[in-house]
Specification:
about 325 residues, Rossmann fold
Length: about 325
């Protein structure tokens, strides 16, 4: 867990043991000059109700934000969704080229995969939110005094909830963020509780038509685990990395009860295209119409819309369980 620490708890920081972020996304970097390594003491002129300064335990260490950000730049499609969900949308002045939801997000040609520090700085941000420290962008932005919050890809649902809560604290929208997280937890728990688990259904989650899959150790794999499903990729050779490349023969031999496609928009995959693959036409999932076409974006992000993804999975499991 990465506790959200406000500056008003500054006196306790010296005695607390900092926990690692426990997420992918690179080695935690040194906080930028604008994000001091220790929170400033509470000022008599700064009412506690304002919530600032606030210190967040992020992927790039302790990040202290002095005042409520008014010009946020998001270089992560997931975090863009979260920022708007928690009410920080009016504070966001620019998002990256992959941030296609919500529609009103101020999409630009900024890239989270090939970050251009000069282009980012031109947006005059008082906070940059990202999920990857590519090309050492965190340190580069730190050199020019831009506060950065690195929130790497979540590996568990709890980490996803935690990051949304941290974005709420960092942007002055803590109450709304807590409300969003509470709603997500309730919805996910309800979906999991309602899932029929008497049948030991197996599944295959396809990332692309190579085909690459995802094991139960990944974030998406843990979503499926809520429904009592068994992942065929867990027994694949070279599965330790979480994303094994499977052979067509491996999938055919495993003959999963359900197939979930996360390569519909990107790669135009469907039940029909799967049936054209060698040895796949007679797979149970294809013959019994249990191929589920997912929204690629929902299947690759860990923000508030994971509930929609879980609803799709839950519906497929219920249909398969009833047949």
């Amino acid at each position: 867990m990465r506790p959200v620490r406000t500056a008003f708890a500054g006196a306790l920081l010296g005695t607390l043991v900092l926990a690692g972020c426990g997420q992918t996304g690179g080695t935690p970097a040194t906080p930028s000059p604008a994000a001091s390594s220790a929170p400033a003491p509470a000022s008599s002129q700064a009412p506690a109700a304002a919530g600032f300064p606030v210190t967040i335990e992020a992927g790039n260490g302790q990040v202290t934000i002095a005042k409520k950000p008014e010009r946020i730049v998001s270089l992560s499609a997931t975090h863009t969704e979260s920022l708007f969900a928690i009410g920080a949308g009016p504070q966001v002045v620019a998002v990256d080229d992959r941030s296609n939801f919500p529609p009103e997000a101020p999409r630009t040609d900024l890239s989270g995969f090939k970050p251009n520090v000069e282009a980012i700085v031109a947006k005059k941000p008082d906070l940059v939110v990202l999920s990857d420290d590519l090309d050492k962008v965190v340190a580069e932005l730190g050199k020019v005094g831009v506060p950065v919050l690195l929130e790497p890809a979540a590996k568990t649902l709890d980490e996803a909830y935690e990051e949304i809560a941290e974005l709420g604290a960092a942007t002055g929208n803590k109450a709304k963020a807590d409300e969003v997280v509470a709603g997500m937890r309730t919805a996910m728990d309800k979906l999991a509780a309602e899932a029929p688990k008497d049948k030991k259904l197996t599944y295959y989650h396809e990332l692309d038509q190579t085909p690459y899959a995802a094991t139960s150790q990944t974030f998406i794999g843990q979503v499926y685990a809520l429904f009592g499903l068994t992942n065929i990729a867990d027994k694949a050779p070279e599965a330790a990395g979480g994303y094994p490349k499977l052979s067509a023969e491996f999938v055919a031999q495993a003959d999963p009860d359900l197939i979930f496609l996360a390569d519909v928009k990107c790669c135009k995959q469907s039940k029909e295209t799967l049936a054209e693959r060698p040895g796949w036409a007679k797979l149970s999932a294809i013959a019994d119409d249990r191929v589920v076409e997912l929204d690629d974006d929902l299947a690759s992000r860990w923000g508030p819309r994971i509930v929609q993804l879980a609803e799709t999975v839950g519906a497929a499991v219920a249909k398969a369980g009833a047949s």
